[in-house]
Amino acid sequence: MLNVVLIGAGNLGFNLYREFYKNEKINLIQWYNKTLDIIKFAEKNTSIIDDLKNLNHADIYIVCVKDDSIKKIIKKINFEGLIVHTSGCRSIKEVNSKKRRGVFYPVQTFNKTREVSFKNVPICIEAESKKDLYTLKKLSNYLKAKTYIIDSEQRKIIHLAAVFVNNFSNHLYTVAKEMLASKKITFEIFHSIIKETTNKVFEIGPEKSQTGPAKRGDNKTIEEHKEILRNKEYKDLYLIITRLIEKKYE
Amino acid sequence: MLNVVLIGAGNLGFNLYREFYKNEKINLIQWYNKTLDIIKFAEKNTSIIDDLKNLNHADIYIVCVKDDSIKKIIKKINFEGLIVHTSGCRSIKEVNSKKRRGVFYPVQTFNKTREVSFKNVPICIEAESKKDLYTLKKLSNYLKAKTYIIDSEQRKIIHLAAVFVNNFSNHLYTVAKEMLASKKITFEIFHSIIKETTNKVFEIGPEKSQTGPAKRGDNKTIEEHKEILRNKEYKDLYLIITRLIEKKYE
């Protein structure tokens, strides 16, 4: 059993709350947010607070606030417990060196309105002592997540690469949806190819999955696509990724 | 029951062969390829030929060859049946106007070595007569695919947009994998986020799924990412997609 305090009620905070609440091995003793309204619904299940002076003792304090608020919030935690932030791009040093510090970063995309299970989600942990690393591993195991021991430098790269994998590919879907809409075609027409593309990536990896005009050096099709692309920014985007693929597979 | 002749043994040709062979309502009467070796394995199930002079009569001739070979191949088909090509970017006019012509374009990514079911795959059909359109719809139904009646102009846009959705997002995964490899981190760490990203897209669409530093205007993180990105082309790619997201959600 682990006693945890959750600090923050953003996308990750909400999803951790839902998970902790139903998890028998995790005892959520407090949930802090600067405005209580948002977490009011949880008061029948845990103590909710909006003042860090009212914090109680816990094994782990999990800070899920905006990156720029991490330092400020942590300064106010006057307990011996392990303090972790959940940011992908901030160093473990964001936590004051006088504290027992660590990082607990789930590589996943979260929304408040969408319940995401932590089962099989990779969680990157970092801590300065073996004991604290073991505690974080235990927390991750309780969530049935997959644990990776990752230092701050590695974590930064994961966070940047995740922007390419998640945010950018999602935007490519948005661009494609717009193109279809201009000809009154539904985006559903791409659901099947998106599924197959990712299944292939999981099974044989992205390099071997690469197909398309740039991969096979089909310049005629590339020229045609350039002609159809009236939007200058979309054309630039098309050209830059096409060049990258050509270069990779030349 | 439909009698079909399959012309070509590329990625799509192979997958259509597999599907036709096991489909009780489709009678594959011939499979043509310019070299017989590749399709030799199929001779116990169908007539295989390497000379178009030996073609037999069929309801539909399905031409799955390289875009630049479509016209040349079709010239050699001297039968009354419906002739369709399977290209995403070529007009129905690639088929000689004296023929009963059409298009049968599955919006999917195919490999020879990977068997893909046509079930639920969107198939874009085009033909000049209602009767031929009906025949193509029947073929598509037999495959349990989803049929869309799409003209040549629309199909070009679908093909271009599919490059963004499939080829380009796949390359973003490749770039991300490279970044991880530079810090000895396995790409498996992204399987879970890729699954969740696409599930979200299917359920709420890509616009509402957008997250990340560009979406929330987190310039500090963007500056940090720019610093980490040593590869100039990756930096350009990062900047152009970041700008597009900022513009879309400003």
Question: Can you walk through the features of this model?
Answer:
Two copies of one chain form a homodimer. With 250 residues, chain A is of the alpha/beta class. Chain A has two domains: 2-150, Rossmann fold (3-Layer(aba) Sandwich), CATH 3.40.50; 156-249, Orthogonal Bundle (N-(1-d-carboxylethyl)-l-norvaline Dehydrogenase, domain 2). Chain A is built from nine helices and eight strands. Chain A has helices at residues 11-22, 70-75, 130-142, 152-182, 191-204, 206-209, 213-216, 219-228, 232-249, and strands at 2-7, 26-32, 47-49, 60-63, 82-85, 100-106, 122-127, 146-149. The first copy, chain A, has an eight-stranded mixed beta sheet with strand order 3-2-1-4-5-6-7-8. In chain A, strand 4, helix 2 (70-75) and strand 5 form a beta-alpha-beta unit. The first copy, chain A, is elongated and about 65 Å long. Chains A and B meet through helix 4, helix 5, helix 6, helix 7 and helix 8 of A and helix 4, helix 5, helix 6, helix 7 and helix 8 of B.
